[in-house]
Amino acid sequence: MGEIIAFKRPRPKAAHKGRTLCNSGFHKWEVTAGTPFDVKSGKLVTRYRCPRCGATRTEAR
Ligand SMILES: [Zn+2]
Q1: How many domains are there within the chain?
Q2: I want to staple 53 with a disulfide (CB 3.0 to 4.6 A). Which of 8, 22, 24, 26 is the partner?
Q3: Neighbours of ion ligand 1 (CB under 5 A)
Q4: Cα 27 to middle of ligand 1, angstroms
Q5: Are 51 and 28 in contact (CB under 8 A)?
Q6: Is residue 34 part of a domain?
Q7: 56: CA distance to ligand 1 center in Å?
Q8: Residue 39 burial (CB count, 10 A)
Q9: Has residue 43 been placed in a domain?
Q10: How many angstroms does the Cα of residue 2 sit away from the middle of ligand 1?
Q11: What's the CA-to-centroid distance between 6 and ligand 1, angstroms?
């Protein structure tokens, strides 16, 4: 019995481009398609993803 949690970690292709901005906290947040439902919190959330560095974040709404 094991819990396998697969995280989809997209590899940043252009890691260098805009990396400075990302490191400074200025990510290029884009709304990602998919279920706007956070299983963990059980709330409707909006998912964002930075195409530059691949960072993701969720925002409750
Ligand atoms: Zn970023």
Answers
A1: 1
A2: 22
A3: 22, 27, 50, 52-53, 55
A4: 4
A5: yes
A6: yes
A7: 8
A8: 8
A9: yes
A10: 33
A11: 21
